[in-house]
Amino acid sequence: MDIFYASLLSLFVLLVSFSLHLFFYNSKPTEGGKPLPPGKTGWPVIGESLEFLATGWKGHPEKFIFDRMSKFSPIVFRTSLMLEDAAVFCGAQGNKFLFSNENKHVQVWWPASVNKIFPSSGKASKKEADKMKKMLPTIFKPEALHRYVPVMDVVTRQHFATWWDGKDEIVTYELTKNFTFWLACKIFVSIDEPERVRYLSHPFKDIATGILAIPIDLPGTPFRRGINAANFIRKELLDIVKQRKIDLAQGKATPTQDMLSHMLLFRDEDGKSLEDYDIADKILGLLIGGHDTASSACAFIVKYLAELPEIYNGVYKEQMEIAKSKAAGELLSWEDLSKMKYSWNVACEVLRLAPPLQGAFREAITDFMYNGYSIPKGWKLYWSANSTHKNNKFFPDPQKFDPSRFEGQGPAPYTFVPFGGGPRMCPGKEYARLEILVFMHHLVTKFKWEKIIPDEQIVVNPMPSPAKGLPIRLYPRKG
Q1: Which of 59, 182, 215, 264 could form a disulfide with 113 if both were Cys (CB 3.0 to 4.6 A apart)?
Q2: Span between the terminal Cα atoms of the chain, in Å
Q3: Would you state the pLDDT for residue 9?
Q4: Across the strands, what pairs with 87?
């Protein structure tokens, strides 16, 4: 046993020595005689992943980016993330390059954790991926979303009546997650029974955390919990898919009732449909995308409106004009939401300061030069929303909350990227806009509120969220 521990200690010392060697002596490497971007790769195997994640856990994900932009390069720097050699492309120039070179120099890439949690993302052929790319814009196109606005309004009214009305205090983030998941279940798979929604919602936090966890597949790790949660939800969704096929065949379900029906009836140019497993996997992805990102945005809208009375008053004035134009009980329409211009500018400023999507990865599919540096084929490339959102070069006084940034032409191209950009821009962008605006309408026309914890910390893991869930004290509006 003593020999075992001595060997273990020797291995540890060797690893530390090797790590320090890499840490301090890899500042100017080359690839085929051409310089690689400046930077450091950190520890063996894990690289700088822990520091990358830890700055988010401490509430300042931009620190990892800006520290290295300042030390190495404001345009591109080298690092090692998610067990991979990586380069971080910064600023509008970096965003434009990655968004504009899809399938030319770069392609989408997901960490091993994502491929394990969503197996079809890794094994899907290009043909399958193209099939999804054609289908999703159809599902989310404006004319398809028009008919969902009244449905969103009904669910939102039910949500506020159930969870907010009659309460003196509520925990915001818990309820915004409840709201966006309930809405996603209704719009995507026509599930709206509260108990069924609650049953399906529990595992989703583990999935979101597991997606960006270091992929160590051991019992009790965030990664394993994410895999188990995804498998549980996928099994439930497969049962729903199989039942819906029966209901469609028997005329008990309609082709246009939700996104699941649309997926089941979709045919590519060869007349082929999607496999049940792939549909369940894509619905799972849509539920995550339509749930976690929007719930974070809604919670931060509550936060900023509590902190900024003048902004709240502007939103309230606009929303009351719309409310007064409606007959008693009349549901919101697409036209009503198109009038919520100031409210959407406020929401955009929230998305700038607290982007639910911190960034995303691409993979170099060929060797290429960028800004005088060699980017080898196979390297993983990361773009960061905060490299522009919180950059004084693109948004003067970036920490100031200022919705007027989005008036007129709005921010310069490739600087405001909460939904990504290029061919990989989030297809649910318009869906998110609708649910956020319907939420804001009922929020401000029903309540004023104040934060119970004035200086509550923000945590990013992987979505930004208030550390204590943003508890607030409610003051219902009269009449």
Answers
A1: 215
A2: 76
A3: 40
A4: 78, 381
